[in-house]
Specification:
The protein is α+β, with helices and mostly antiparallel strands. 23% of the residues lie in helices and 22% in strands. Strands 3-4-7-6-8-12 form a 6-stranded mixed sheet. It has a 4-stranded mixed sheet with strand order 1-13-5-2, covered by helices on one side. The two termini are 31 Å apart.
Length: 261
């Protein structure tokens, strides 16, 4: 018998009485094979009925029906959508962040190594969620999310931000062109790279880079859960791990946040 989802929590977000959140793992789903567990990614080639059931289980964990869960058609941008009533999954907007002030709307971000960011100003009753890979972090997805929250009445000096499971520095090797492009853009970025065992290659600190982009915006608090998607195969899906293993596809975990009704 399958147990239900068992999401991870951030301590700061958990203190907000008006907000519920979870960084969901592979635990508690019905998918099989490569997608074993709680695969919530419609972009994968998993059985659509399994994906639908997994997403319904996430919504159920929040005490809501499946249609309350809104996810995006993520494109590694810095674009933000303000959510009022949600949408059908087939009509998902092309963007990488969402904000809302509507109780009962679940904002969900899909990842498989990139960073899921959850935002909360419990006092104002405004929340946000963002998909932050290196492109999104570099492009300003955190700043754009905060601005969109401010338009709904949030204040960034009250906003807590949490970064969920993503690929850790010890798991993310990059080539010389990647390193050069970052350092050429800003010499300070060199601190997010350490030499790897391979000549001219580096290990890249994605969560550190994302954290820098968030903290620079002047938020109340920022924390990373310090869980590595590539290394923890039983807990998380990972694009990098699937590629290194020569697998044809991979699942996606979901990170989500909701204002309580």
């Amino acid at each position: 018998m399958s147990h239900g989802p068992a999401p991870l929590k951030d301590a700061s977000l958990a203190l907000e009485p008006s907000v519920e959140h979870g960084f969901f793992t592979r635990t508690g789903g019905v998918s099989e094979g490569l997608y074993r567990g709680l695969n919530c990614g419609p972009g994968s080639s998993d059985n659509p009925a399994h994906i639908q059931e997994n997403r319904a289980r996430v919504a159920g964990w929040f005490g809501r029906e499946a249609q309350a869960l809104s996810t995006l058609y993520q494109i590694h941008s810095a674009d933000v959508v303000t959510v009022t009533d949600g949408w059908d999954r087939s009509d998902a907007p092309k963007a990488d962040a969402m904000v809302t002030d509507r109780p009962g709307v679940i904002l969900g971000i899909l990842t498989a190594d990139c960073g899921p960011l959850l935002f909360s100003d419990g006092e104002a009753g405004v929340i946000g969620a963002a998909h932050a890979g290196w492109k999104g972090a570099q492009g300003g997805v955190a700043e754009n999310t905060l601005r969109a929250m401010e338009k709904l009445g949030a204040r960034r000096d009250r906003i807590a931000v949490a970064l969920g499971p993503c690929i850790a520095p010890e798991s993310y090797e990059v080539g010389p062109e990647f390193h050069a492009a970052f350092v050429d853009r800003d010499s300070d970025n060199d601190r997010f790279f350490q030499p790897s065992a391979r000549a001219e290659h580096h290990m890249f600190d994605l969560p550190g880079f994302i954290g820098k982009s968030v903290v620079a915006c002047g938020v109340k608090s920022f924390a990373w859960l310090r869980r590595d998607t590539r290394a923890e195969e039983d807990a998380f899906f990972s694009y990098r791990r699937s590629t290194l293993n020569g697998e044809p596809d991979y699942g996606r975990q979901l990170s989500a946040i909701m204002l309580r009704t």
